[in-house]
Amino acid sequence: MTTSPSLLAAQDLHVAFPGRHGAASARAVDGVELDIGAGEIVALVGESGCGKTTLARALLGLVPPTRGRVVFRGEPLTYSSRALKAYRRRVQLILQDPTGSLNPRHTVYDAVAEGLRIHGYGGDERAAVAEALSRAGLRPPERFLLRYPHELSGGQRQRVVIAGALVLEPELLVADEPVASLDASVRGEILALLLRLRADLGLSALVVTHDLGLAWNIADRVAVMYLGRIVETGAVEQVLTAPRHPYTQALLSVLPEAPGDPVVLTGEPPDPSRIPSGCRFHARCQILAGGEAERVGVADACRSEDPEVLGGGGEAQVACHWARAGITA
Is Signal given among the entry's keywords (predicted)? Predict the structure, then answer.
C-alpha cells in the first residue's frame, strides 16, 4: 500500500473505439481510476483482451480518452504535439519484443541515442549513451556501442531497449509484458534490473502483464483488470495471497504452486461492444454458477447491478457483490 503522492493517475478514464458499419463502440477502457505513486511499481494484470494495453497506451498519451483524463504530477495531460513530446520524455514505454523495438540497421549507439536526438539533447551524447547502457547492465558499455541487434542475445536486446528509455532520465516507465519474449533464465535478471532502477533512481513503473507470478516478484501493488475495468486492487501480498474477486481467484488457481484444483472459466470474455448488465464477470463467474451467490442473497445483484468503480488509491478494494457481502474464499 502506497502513501507516496500520486505521480500519474487515470481519472474516470474511458477509451472507446467506433464499431464498423454502425455497430456499437467497443469500450476497451470503461471507467478506470488508477494512481501510481512516486517510486512505486504497480502491476496491471488480466487476460488477453481485457483492455490493459489500451489503458497503458492511454496513460502514455498514445490514445486520447473518450472521457475522463490522465493527470501527471497534478496537471491534466494535454494533447498538443509540444505537450506530448515533453510528457513522453518523462514517461517512457518499454515493449515486450526487443527485436521488434530495435531497427536492425541501427547500432546500439544509434538506438539509445535516438531519443536524445528527438528531444534536442545539448549535452555530451556519447557520455549519456554510455551511462544509460551501464545502468541497464551492459558493461563495459564500449563493448556494445557499435554492435547491431542481431549480434546480441534476447536479454541484451531488452537491456538496450531499457537503456533507450533511461537515457532521457524519465520519472516513470510503462513496461508492456517486459519479459514475455525472454527465456526463463533471463527473466529474473530483467526483473532484478527494474527493481534496481527503482532503488537507485527512484523510478516508478507500471508493469502490464498476464503473469501473476511476475507481479508477485516485482510489484508493490496490483490492479486486476477485466473487460475494461479494474475489479480488484491492493497491496500485492494481500491480493495474491487472499484474493477476494472470483476472477482473481480463477487467475491464481492455475499457477503451478496454487493449492486445490484450478478454476476453469467457461466461455470467452464478452465482446467489449456488448458489455453485459450487472457485474461484467457474472456470465463466467464460478461463485454465481455454483450457487454461493444465491445462498448469500446477492445473485440478483450480480445479474442486474453494476458494482461501483474502484478508487485509484492504494487501499484494498474489490468490485464484487459477493465479496462485499463478507464472504471469503
Answer: no
Q: List the domains of the chain with CATH numbers.
A: 6-18+26-224 (3.40.50.300), 240-324 (no CATH)
From CA 193, how far away is CA 199, in angstroms rounded? 10
Q: How far is CA 30 from CA 15, 16, 175, 177, in A?
A: 7, 8, 22, 22
DSSP string, 32-97: EEEEEETT-EEEEE--TTSSHHHHHHHHTTSS--SEEEEEETTEE---SHHHHHHHHHHEEEE-S-
pLDDT at 24: 82
Separation between Cα atoms, residue 177 and residue 94, nearest integer Å: 9
Comparing CA positions, the residue from 239, 200, 183 lying closest to residue 216 is 239
Q: How big is the chain, counted in residues?
A: 329
Residue 320 near residue 231, CB atoms below 8 Å: yes
Residue among 315, 235, 249 nearest 41 (CA): 235
The pLDDT > 70 percentage for the chain reads 98
Tens-digit pLDDT profile for residues 7-51: 999 999 999 999 887 778 999 999 999 999 999 999 999 998 899
Cβ–Cβ contacts within 10 Å for residue 58, how many?
25
